[in-house]
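Input/output pair, single chain:
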Amino acid sequence: MTSGKGGVGKTSLTINLAVAMARLGHRVGILDADFALGNIDVMLGLTPEVHLGAVLEGVKRIDEITLDGPSGVRIIPAGSGVRALTALDDDRWLRLAAAIDEAGRDLDFLFFDTATGIADTVLDVIRLADYALVVTSYDPAAVVDAYAVIKLITAADAAKPIGVVVNSARDSEEGGLVFRQISLAADRFLGRTLRYDGHVLEDRQVRESVFAQMPLLLGADVAGPATGCIRRVASRLASARPNGSGGPWPAPPGRIERGSPAATMEAPRCA
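Output:
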């Protein structure tokens, strides 16, 4: 899970997708890959005694720092304000790769919630993933930054499957429009076909759930606009193999404007 721009709701979406997939019967974990400014634990009201830094230093095993999260989701917390984790040397990266391999043995899906931006650390984490899911929004800056991330992922690993989720969309039309803007650019300039993993509707309850330190899907009102979308995205991810099979959503050629028939073609609608 990655994004070029902050404020698009990536971490909240990561948590809720993990919960949704766990409720589908899958064994799911989240590794907080924002090593120096991690906040997955904060968003879930957890208080870890040790964090991923202890694993990277060779002091703890991954199972010794893993926490029980909502709906059985396993949480691997990162540090916060730990300067030593802002840049990882080769030894730490080897320990991280080994820890991820160990954690993955008991899980069906392991989410990496990366830091915002395009630092080398972010790209190194993405290299370890089977699939890169880029979270963006209708904000023009978020769209541009999403493309920048996709460009860098492609430069680092041209074979890496990449999907896109449009968060806080006003409707399915907006989600489809944003995806097509990014998809057309990726196809034209990078020769990449992206997969549209869906959109999540704008919902005030998302913000409220963050302040309550509880996943949206476990709140009092689980019938809000965003919940059906999150379940749909989770179901799509769960049904896809790690190589991104399931096929990309077709992107029609040419410029796509809001309100045009092409803007809604193949755009997934929430339940």
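Residues 172-190 form the longest helix (19 residues). Residues 10-244 form a domain with the Rossmann fold fold (CATH 3.40.50.300).
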